[in-house]
């Protein structure tokens, strides 16, 4: 892969970056996303942030080879530490777990004052991000889901606003499945949650065979609750 043609997953993220934005792509790895956007003239400035030396060097090499040093600044550091307050208006964080993404946002809260949009693409545990957005007055404004190479990916887009707005009376299912995704119920969405349910059933059956401790009973109860919640949504 190179920045000429992004993966469908990164393309889904790229489409949500506002035109002419000043962007920070955190955990940029090869910097394919900012390079793609810069080459198409879709952003005016980007920071490609990396905490690990290898990917940081890959990003620098990519930006240099693409002749984009005047638009993309590759910086090494943890999460939003690489941003000076006020520098960017959009942040993308893609290809990590939801817990890691939410942790980066939490630790870097002071860098978010000028930021108008977050585009987040968790590989797992999107619920952790939705909860963080809810608690921090970021309104989820759009979500997308797709399957690529046998894996299912979600993208979450948020702007400062009324963080409760997308959920209405569907808080529990909205947080777990995504308030926009559960309305659209696309094929990738149905596939993801059918697979999750199969997995929960498998764990449930294993727990049935295990010793009957209070923890086991609690875990079984939680699994049943989730299974029923998802069943309800898919059956609507
Ligand atoms: N964003 C790219 C994508 O979606 O294709 C790369 C994803 S890659 C799987 C995750 C990258 O995030 C790795 O290069 C890793 O070094 C970086 N990373 C993990 N934690 C980070 C943090 N706290 N701050 C900055 N980068 C981080």
Question: Please, could you describe this protein's structure?
Answer:
The protein has 236 residues and is an alpha/beta fold. Helix content is 44%, strand content 22%. It has 9 helices and 7 strands. The chain has helices spanning 8-14, 32-39, 53-65, 98-107, 126-135, 171-177, 181-184, 187-209, 214-235; strands at residues 21-26, 43-50, 72-76, 90-96, 117-122, 138-148, 151-160. The chain has a 7-stranded mixed β-sheet with strand order 3-2-1-4-5-7-6, sandwiched between helices. Strand 4 (90-96), helix 4 (98-107) and strand 5 form a beta-alpha-beta unit. The radius of gyration is 19 Å and the shape is elongated. The mean pLDDT is 96. S-adenosylmethionine (SAM) is lined by residues 10, 26-29, 49-52, 55, 78-79, 94-96, 100, 104. Residues 10, 26-29, 49-52, 55, 78-79, 94-96, 100, 104 line the site of S-adenosylmethionine.
């Amino acid at each position: 892969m190179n920045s000429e043609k992004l993966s469908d997953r990164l393309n889904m993220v790229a489409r949500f970056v506002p035109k002419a934005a000043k962007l920070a792509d955190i955990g940029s790895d090869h910097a394919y996303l900012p390079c793609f956007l810069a080459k198409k003239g879709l952003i005016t400035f980007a920071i490609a942030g990396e905490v690990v030396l290898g990917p940081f060097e890959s990003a620098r090499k990519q930006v240099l080879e693409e002749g984009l040093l005047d638009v993309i600044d590759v910086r090494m550091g943890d999460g939003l530490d690489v941003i000076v307050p006020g520098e960017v208006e959009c942040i993308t964080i893609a290809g990590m777990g939801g817990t890691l993404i939410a942790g980066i946002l939490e630790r870097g809260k002071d860098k978010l004052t000028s930021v108008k949009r977050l585009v987040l693409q968790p590989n797992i545990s999107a619920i952790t991000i939705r909860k963080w957005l809810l608690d921090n007055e970021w309104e989820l404004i759009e979500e997308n889901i797709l399957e690529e190479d046998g894996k299912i990916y979600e993208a979450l887009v948020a702007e400062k606003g009324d963080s409760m707005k997308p959920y209405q009376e569907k808080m529990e299912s909205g947080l777990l499945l995504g308030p926009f995704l559960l309305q659209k119920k696309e094929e990738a969405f149905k596939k993801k949650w059918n697979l999750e349910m199969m997995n929960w059933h498998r764990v449930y059956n294993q727990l049935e065979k295990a010793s009957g401790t209070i923890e086991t009973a609690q875990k079984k109860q939680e699994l049943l609750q989730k299974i029923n919640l998802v069943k309800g949504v898919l059956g609507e």
